[in-house]
Amino acid sequence: MLIRIKAFARYRALLGSESEVKLAEGAAVSDLLESLASRSGELRGQLFDDSGRVREDLNVMVNGRHFLSLAGEETPLAEGDEVALFPAVVGG
């Protein structure tokens, strides 16, 4: 199945602004992130922390909904889903 990726800020520099990723049927957000991370060590470091967890400053939106409000990393994906990746906005 094809999943459309939209990348913003530092993720755009590593992935381009829009792309598609082919995943097996039944894949979840964790499978997508692992597929993306396998492209480069730099990208892996931007997606996962040193313990292998999704970085806290990474926002993952699946069809406009934050993945943590769904099933987290186990959120199932379907053909044609759109996943957006962008850093958390912090500041004062």
Automatic annotation (TrEMBL):
Transmembrane segments: none annotated. Pfam families: ThiS. This is Molybdopterin synthase subunit MoaD.
